[in-house]
């Protein structure tokens, strides 16, 4: 049975989700010049991690450390660790790379916390700007925690016209927030409910999502997960982003990952995979994500972590 305080925070989370639905602007980005038809509407710019993109939609319920900061702030309390991470992110559709860093601390206080920053770099064409994020989590018990994340985005697309002129299109700018509730009824099973970008920035690149995730870990060797996100802000009717993945930990140090996702409105299928290494001092991950439809974008992300004991 949940304690009165746990029920109160669960009620708060539900209220935030309801507010996101109630304040939604009914619109169709099919009429927006950036989205001439739904399936070419810009792909949302998530605060992804190398582990997350390898697992399709992130397998968010199984997140911890820097992946928790990106996908599930309620999980920032897990692990009792202090991580520093550097990230390199390349996407062919953005015609450039992003460099970033993150710090996550769940060791020095009962409250878990993290902060991350990523800068997008482009030449004459591509996406340029910044993506910053901070998160806090509070545990009610080992089984239940709640988290809140704040995010600031300022991203523009640079293009060169046929006449050789440089033009700039604002993709998204402003402050938004995420909230998540994590419940682990048994050690091997994690369930997450989430509201993503619930302060609506009126952009298909930062849509308002409501959703859930479930992950199961077998014998501390294999993790299976599924995520479902409902986009309630981009189109006239709700769109669904569904996906999942599997992660195998070889010899307790080498994770191997495979994932898949499908965006119903953009008719976008994506296959992904990755590998890494982790011990008690350092860790690194490399992942690739390949769109199987539309522009067939390729995305590659690598990260290096240092564990502060």
SSE topology sketch:
Elements: H1 4-22, H2 50-54, H3 65-71, E1 82-91, E2 96-105, E3 112-122, E4 126-139, E5 144-160, E6 166-186, E7 189-196, E8 209-218, E9 222-231, E10 239-250, E11 254-263, E12 268-278, E13 282-291, E14 298-307
Antiparallel strand pairs: 1-2, 1-14, 2-3, 3-4, 4-5, 5-6, 6-7, 7-8, 8-9, 9-10, 10-11, 11-12, 12-13, 13-14
Describe this structure in words.
The protein is mainly beta and 309 residues long. Helix content is 10%, strand content 53%. The protein has a 14-stranded antiparallel barrel with strand order 1-2-3-4-5-6-7-8-9-10-11-12-13-14. Strand 11 (254-263) and strand 12 (268-278) form a beta hairpin. Mean pLDDT is 87; it is low at 23-31.
DSSP helix count? 3
Q: Beta-strand level of the residues, as a percent range?
A: over 45%
Helix content: 10-25%
Write down the oligomeric state: single chain
The shape, in one word, is globular
Largest sheet: 14 strands, antiparallel, barrel
The number of distinct β-strands equals 14
Unreliable stretches? 23-31
Element pattern in H and E: HHHEEEEEEEEEEEEEE
Strand order of the largest sheet: 1-2-3-4-5-6-7-8-9-10-11-12-13-14
C-alpha Rg, in Å?
A: 19 Å
Report the mean per-residue pLDDT as an integer. Answer: 87
List keywords for this structure.
309 residues; mainly beta; 14-stranded antiparallel barrel; 3 helices; 10% helix; globular
Summarize the structure.
The protein has 309 residues and is mainly β. It has three helices and 14 strands.
